[in-house]
Every structure is written in C-alpha cells, then in structure tokens.
Amino acid sequence: MGSRFEQLADAVLAGVPAGPGDALAVLGADDAEVLSVVAAAGRLRRAHFDNTVKVNYLVNLKSGLCPENCNYCSQALGSAAPILKYSWLSTEEALKQAGAGISGGAGRVCLVSSGRGPSNRDIDRVTEMVGALKAEHPDVEVCACLGLLSDGQAERLKDAGVDAYNHNINTAESHHHNIVQTHTYADRVDTVEKAKRGGLSPCSGLIAGLGETDEQLVEALFALKELDADSIPVNFLMPFDGTPLADTWELSPSRCLKILAMARFVCPDKEIRIAGGREMHLRSLQPLALHVANSIFLGDYLTSEGQAAEADLEMIRDNGFVVLGSEEDSAAREPADPAIRRRGAGTAVVPNA
Q1: Which residues belong to any copy of the Radical SAM core domain (predicted)?
Q2: Which are the contacts of 331, defined by CB distance < 8 A and separation ≥ 6?
C-alpha cells in the first residue's frame, strides 16, 4: 500500500475530489514526507499536463503610484519601496518588452498596470497595444491585469484580442481585511466574474506568507476552485523594505512545495503557476516544484528581478520538461567544459566557500 498521499492521488485520479481535510493534511505533512507529497502531486500534474511547462512573461505597463493600500505591494499607497515608478509605456515600448519575452520562449504575455482599475481611456491604450502585439505575434496568448473592472470593459478587451484576465483574490476572505482596506474581497471576486462573463479566461491566484493560517490557505484555494479559475498563480510574499509587511519571513522551501502540492491536489486539472517570490523562497528546490506546477513566469516580475531567463529554460530542460508550444525536446545541449579551479588551495585567491 502506498503512502497516504499516493492514496489521495489515486482517489483524485479516480474522480474523487480532495476535500479541505486532505488539503490541510498536505500542508501539515512532515518535512520528511515532502518527496512523497511531490511524487503524488506529480502524478496529477503528469496526468493533465504531461511534461509541458507553460512559460509566461510580465510587462509592467505602468509602475507604482497606486491608490490602493495592499500591505504586501511595493507599488501601493504609502509604500516607500525604492522601485521604478513611471506612467504608461508607449505601444512601441510595450511591444519591445513583450517581444523580448516571446523570443525567450514565452507563450503568454501578461500586460499589467498599477492602479485601482482602468478608465475607458486606459482600455483604449491597452486594446491598441494588444492589436499591435497580435499583429506581430498572432499565436501569443495575451493576459491583461489592470485592476478592478467596470461593466463592459471585459467585453472590450475580449473584442481586442485579449485571451485572459488576471485578478488575484490574494488571500482568504476571512483574512482580506487584514491585508487591504481600500477595496473588499467581494470587489475582487466581482472582477473575476466580470472577466468570465466577458468571455475572458479567468486567472486568479493567491499570495502565501501574509500571516494567514493553514485553514485560511485552504479557504483561499477552495474559493479559487469555486471561481473555476483556469490559471492559478501561486505567489510567495516578497517582503519589500518600505511596505507594512517588510521583514515578514514565514516561508521555507519545503513549505512552498507543500502549498503548490495542495493547489495541485485541490485543482488537479488547472494551470498551477509558480509566480513571484519563487527564487527567494523555493531557492534550490525550484526544480522540484516543476514536478508539481506546470507554469512559471520567465525573467523579471513587476518591480523585482527574477533569475536569468536562460537559467529558467535550462531548469525546465534539465528536469525532463519542454516549453509548451515549442518544438524543442528534452535532449541536453552541448555540455560546458569543466571550469579549471584558479582559487583556494595553492593560490593567493580566497577559496569558494
């Protein structure tokens, strides 16, 4: 008989959904069980997504100066984080930035802007960008993330060629008021529903490490399941200096793996994306996380740097995965020659230690 997590995977594959108790058991697994958790969740990942990894690329169209007070955000009202702040990129610059991600292997470009929500003029800007982007790269998926939507805006984005809309619920409804006070949890859910009614694929996820309990993480995941989000980005808090959650360090690499595995058990056939904070919190376990999640962001994030894009693509190849939509296979590239040691013992140069 397999482990309890193998038995859970068997049940999910047989059509029995994981319940809140199952999700709590995954989060509460001992660190000695992490490989069993990953192996079991990986069966679900392979069953629905085989060996593919969807690669996404962010373009921050407008950075900083947001009137909302989300405590985790470096762009929020009151944040003193030393980030880049600028108004809207031109269409030409947005295309240049998006093109860099596409040439790096991204199959989806996420066009993001700071702010409470778009004005109709903002929608005009974005639809112009999307038209130009689709003309140049007709096969690329476009996801917009512009904040709270007003009536009719999702339909306009859909008509312009936008494929998906991202608006994260971020945390459980029971914890939301502790994280942001300038809009409600219901406001966020309403925007996801507007996107769905407008014909856009709903993309909505969470941020782990906001001071939530295990029960609240489970609550958030089941809310995303209820929303029927097609894509679920799992972010890990990056505690920027100058924000209310600076110096908040609640996550370990194994904890992050369990959170991703919980998402896979609860939403086995949905795109689970390793999003912001993966380099900081998963660290050397990033490759293991790919055996649970099937999607990542390539390169940099909205206000923080990610690891080198080539390192991401190498990580995908080295773990036997292929980029979704690419023609590459899992064959290794020509190996690099060994680097000759020229430091440490026998030299005057300090050792690599």
Answers
A1: 51-275
A2: none
Whole-number Å distance between alpha carbons of 310 and 349: 29
Instruction: Report which residue type is found at 233.
Output: P
Neighbours of 308 (CB within 10 A): 12
DSSP character at residue 99: H
Cβ-contact 231, 196 below 8 angstroms: no
Q: Which tens digits make up the pLDDT trace of 26-58?
A: 999 999 999 999 999 999 999 999 999 999 999
Q: What residue type is 106 in one-letter code?
A: A
State the pTM of this model.
Answer: 0.93
Task: Please tell me whether 255 is known to bind a ligand.
Answer: no
Is the pLDDT at 330 greater than 70? The verdict is no
| Domains of the chain (ranges, CATH numbers) | 4-323 (3.20.20.70)
Per-residue pLDDT tens digits for 60-108: 999 888 888 898 888 888 888 887 888 999 999 999 999 999 988 899 9
- Pair 101, 133: CB distance under 8 Å: no
Query: What type of residue sits at position 278?
Result: R
Query: Residues 252, 291: contact at Cβ < 8 Å?
Result: no
CA proximity to 139, closest of 333, 12, 326: 326
Rounded CA-CA distance 80/97 in Å is 26
Dist CA 92 CA 48 (whole Å)? 37
- CA dist 204 and 189 (Å) reads 9
Is 73 annotated as contributing to ligand binding?
yes
Percent of the chain with pLDDT over 70: 96
